[in-house]
Amino acid sequence: MTRSKLVQANERIAQKSSEAFGSIEHRVVTSFDSVENAFVERYLAHENESVEEAKKRLLQEKESRRQLQQDRKNSKGHELRTGI
């Protein structure tokens, strides 16, 4: 069964579009990572701390703040239910 030239052309266009999107996506993500690392290194890293160590520390701090907020929220709910 022969395929029409339009179908073949559309498939080539779709393939090229997908390849172009993948290339652009890769460049954008790489550029963002580069900017993010520079920002962390310049403004957030402590003295003698690598970018990876700073990111890990920041994630741990974020998680501890989230947990503290959750604990406070649960504590207030308990106070309201028990009248304490």
From TrEMBL:
Q: Could you tell me the superkingdom of the organism this chain comes from?
A: Bacteria
Q: Where is this region: Disordered?
A: 60-84
Q: Quote the protein name from its UniProt record.
A: Uncharacterized protein
